[in-house]
Amino acid sequence: MSLAFFSLGALAWSASEYAIHRFVGHGPRRKKPSTWRGMLSLEGLAYAFNSEHLAHHADPSYFAPSSQKAAAAALTVGAGFVCLTPIFGPRRALAFATGLASTYLGYEIVHRRIHTHAPKSAYAAFVRKHHLLHHHKTPKENHGVTTPVWDAVFGTYSKVDVLRMPRGAAPAWMTGADGEILPAYADDYTLVGPKVTTRAQPTVGAA
């Protein structure tokens, strides 16, 4: 397997991650194709991603079904392999497709864990703050999920010292049983908005 073509495939996904997120996920609303063939076209894939991405922004705990993502990835990677084989040969085309698919899988894992798991490294802490800033303050910036490189290149990178998170929207890993930011994350995040309090119910039979 060609390491150079594997690396090119990985780079291709990294750039695609940024471009798809910025121009499709946050692009204009798209009309749903009326046929299944239309849904399998580039326009259909763009419609599906745009719709699912808007749903994810409305509820960050929501993710598109894995089967749907796998089908779209298989279609894209397979098409890339078929198109590149006549030009570069099957060995290099396979290396490119493998690099693309592997990096895409890494992106999916990183993105999901940003919302579901606490950071365990400096990189993990950085990408969480970078992505959550995109979700809750700058949706037109910070389109890269696994890296800020493309944001820096295209002028869409932003950062804050302390990210103000809407109360109730913070990931479960960020808060304690009292709903407040855990001390480990207090330097990077703060909650804003009124606290939700539960009114005590009177005891049945009490005087």
Characterise the protein shown here:
By secondary structure, the protein is mainly α. The protein has 2 domains: 3-117, no CATH class; 121-207, no CATH class. The chain is 56% helix and 4% strand. It has 7 helices and 2 strands, in the order αααααααββ. It has helices spanning 3-25, 36-39, 42-58, 66-88, 90-116, 122-136, 149-154; strands at residues 163-166, 189-192. A two-stranded parallel ribbon has the order 1-2. The relative contact order is 0.12.
Task: Spell out the blueprint of helices and strands.
Layout lengths: L2 H23 L10 H4 L2 H17 L7 H23 L1 H27 L5 H15 L12 H6 L8 E4 L22 E4 L15
Parallel strand pairs: 1-2
Helix pairs in contact: 1-5, 4-5
Q: What's the short version?
A:
By secondary structure, this protein is mainly alpha-helical. The protein folds into two domains: 3-117, no CATH class; 121-207, no CATH class. It is built from seven helices and two strands, in the order H-H-H-H-H-H-H-E-E.
Q: What features would you highlight for this structure?
A:
2 strands; mainly alpha; two-stranded parallel ribbon
